[in-house]
Amino acid sequence: MTHTDSASPAPAHEIETEDHVALGEDYALTASFVEKVVDAADDGDGMRLRGLLEDLHPADVADLMGFLTSEHRAVVVQWLPPELLADTLPELDDGIREEVLERVPHLTLAEALQELDSDDAAAVVEDLEDDQREKVLAAMPEVDRAAIESSLGYPEDSAGRLMQREVMAAPQFWNVGDTIDHVRRQGEELPELFFDIYVVDPVNRPVGGVAISRLLRAPRETPLIELMEPINAIDVDVDQEEVAYIFEKYNLISAPVVDTGGRLVGQLTVDDIVHIIQEENREDILRLAGVSDEDRSSGVLEIVRGRVPWLGINLFTAILGAGVIAFFEGTIQQIVALAVLMPIVSAIGGNAGTQALTVTVRALATRELTSSNAVRTFWRELTVGLANGLVLSPLVGLAAGFWFHDWRIGAVIATAMILNLLVAATVGVLTPLTLSKLKFDPAVSSAVFVTATTDFFGFLIFLGLATIVLL
In tens digits, what is the pLDDT along the chain, a chain of 471 residues? Predict the structure, then answer.
């Protein structure tokens, strides 16, 4: 597949379409520009729309689509130049892309996909309905169709699905001059973006790589085997999160992808990895909050369906906490001050637990926390929890004692705070560690469990101590 390079974004003050500035100083689309596009779409002024959009970077067009209604997007898509449409499709949010694809004729879409690298084309085709996918693939040249079908044959979120099949390789016996001449002859067949020439053996297994910058500095007669360096080959079935970790750990900008026989089948480049890292971080943040994958195109019902189950679980855990309070109803009736102070104990425990949980989940994601240092990490967080308690509890204890004129109340809440902070540190570390050990995503449901546990034990410890000491 060939690809037409899009212009790199110019400084914000220089990006204008016709008589209107499109981007502000922060590289975000201006509200006035979006309004211009909406007005042109309302008027059905296609030429005006094309004039507004044709100089935008594909990423900015994709951003614009997120600000438009479904009706306005339907009009805008019709007037996007074919090359700009092709480059914009991979940049769109998944929900918006599915909607846009429904409105693009299959012949237009087939032509646009031929302008993309195989990884981007496969990502677009994946979102098509089965009948539309068949029509689009049937309208494409056999070579392009085979490349997309091959990519879709790999597991979702695997290196095979993410890789681009366009890759530059050279046999071991070539020298620098042979390689440079070969690259020049490729013309439009060159990958859109590549940083290395992979040196392969007679059965197409990569044995090393030569950076383009090093290749261009070497004399033409230099053999490639004298220039090549070790490579980090990635198997096609490796998960994308593992791929991102490999790139980050070894500071890679590209890496070859090999099949089960070790043969070169494609490459991954750093632009793909940036997207993966953002996607994985976004998923972790949303899951920690008990929120499903949402974007600007998500409807109200879709968002509600994603959030209600977690709120229901939260409601159940809140009832457990209420049960503890009900159990000590008699104590609270006799000492009303306890009802005033209970939220302090639960709140400080919940916040401390969330802190420990966030740090632990992040450390697990970046491989900074493994079985080799899990015990040390646990004791460190427990010590931090104790230190926080020793700093904060005297302040709260003294304030409560003066407020209610009873030093025993101050002692009870101070002790309860220290114990609950220890509970928070314990569950904040052990919950994600346990889920990870059981092969579950540690970000899922951890926050709900940690908050429920700190509330439950916070009430139990505080009211239990109050019953023993004050009654």
Answer: 554 444 444 444 444 444 457 888 888 899 999 999 999 999 988 899 988 998 899 999 999 999 999 899 999 998 888 888 889 998 898 888 888 888 888 888 888 888 888 888 888 998 888 888 899 999 999 888 888 888 888 998 899 999 988 899 999 999 999 999 999 998 777 887 889 999 999 999 999 999 999 999 999 999 999 999 999 999 999 999 899 999 989 999 999 999 999 999 999 999 888 888 887 777 777 777 666 666 666 778 877 877 788 788 888 888 988 999 999 999 898 898 999 999 999 999 999 999 999 899 888 888 888 888 999 999 999 999 999 999 999 999 999 999 999 999 999 999 999 999 999 999 999 999 998 888 887 877 678 888 889 999 999 999 999 999 988
Report the alpha-carbon distance of residue 76 to residue 71 in Å, rounded.
Answer: 9
The domain segmentation of the chain, as residue ranges, is 12-153, 169-269, 300-470
Superfamily, domain 169-269: CBS-domain (3.10.580.10)
The C-alpha atoms of residue 225 and residue 174 are separated, in whole angstroms, by 8
| Fold of the domain built from segment(s) 300-470 | Tetracycline Repressor; domain 2 (1.10.357)
Tokens of 228: 């090549």
How far is C-alpha 42 from the chain's CA centre?
35
| Fold (CATH) for 12-153 | MgtE N-terminal fold (1.25.60)
Q: What is the CA radius of gyration of the chain?
A: 29
CB atoms within 10 A of CB 141: 11
List of residues 6+ apart from 439 with CB closer than 8 A: none
Residue pair 14/23 in contact by the 8 Å Cβ criterion: no
At residue 234, the 3 state secondary structure works out as strand
pTM of this structure: 0.72
Coil/strand/helix, residue 179: helix
